[in-house]
Design a protein that fits this description.
One of its GO terms (molecular function) is DNA-binding transcription factor activity. InterPro entries: HTH_MarR-typ, MarR/SlyA-like, Tscrpt_reg_MarR-type_CS, WH-like_DNA-bd_sf, WH_DNA-bd_sf. The protein has 169 residues and is mainly alpha-helical. It has a domain of 118 residues: Winged helix-like DNA-binding domain superfamily/Winged helix DNA-binding domain (Arc Repressor Mutant, subunit A). The chain has seven helices and three strands. α1 runs antiparallel to α2.
Length: 169
């Protein structure tokens, strides 16, 4: 059972009540899913707050980081949509915002003239470089209560949970 937190207490109480009313209800599984959902919401809200200081949304930051992390420094919008589990329309909107901010440029794919590649501009690379210390501090703050082996175990368990969710769909 997770430590009591004011944000999670009501959810935990609700899951306990559901479990009492429905003995077959998988409360531990529901608790994990709800914790993941809460973590997503809190990190997204906090990410938006932090990125606002840099003139970005959290979603724009994620797109910048996906482009930055691509092996040859360029990625097509479909790859971003797949990796981020975003709709194509959202990726189009986000990339247009980043193009408008001068952080990303589009170029035709050398392999498929119908496809565009996205690449960081010099300003985009500078923005990513400026973001790394801030985002690194945030990530370390999020995980400061976990030992290295616990963090590794959590990573393995979440990856295992992800595989289960993907297979269930």
């Amino acid at each position: 059972m997770p430590p009591a937190t004011s944000r999670f207490d009501a959810t935990e109480q609700g899951l306990a009540a559901t479990s009492r009313r429905h003995p077959g209800f998988p409360r531990p599984a529901a608790t994990v899913v709800r914790l993941v959902k809460l973590l997503y919401k809190l990190t997204t809200d906090h990410g938006n707050e932090r990125m606002r200081e840099h003139g970005l949304t959290y979603a724009e930051y994620n797109v910048l980081m996906m482009i930055e992390a691509s092996p040859d420094g360029a990625i097509n919008p479909s790859q971003i949509a797949d990796a981020a589990s975003e709709k194509s329309a959202n990726v189009t909107r986000l990339t247009q915002q980043l193009v408008d901010k001068g952080l990303v440029e589009r170029e035709p794919s050398p392999h498929d003239r119908r496809m565009w590649l996205l690449r960081l501009t010099e300003a985009g690379r500078a923005r990513v470089t400026a973001l790394i210390p801030d985002i690194s501090a945030v990530l370390l703050a999020y995980t400061r209560h976990l030992q290295a082996d616990e963090l590794e175990q959590l990573k393995r368990l979440l990856a295992k949970l992800l595989r289960g969710v993907e297979q269930a769909q």
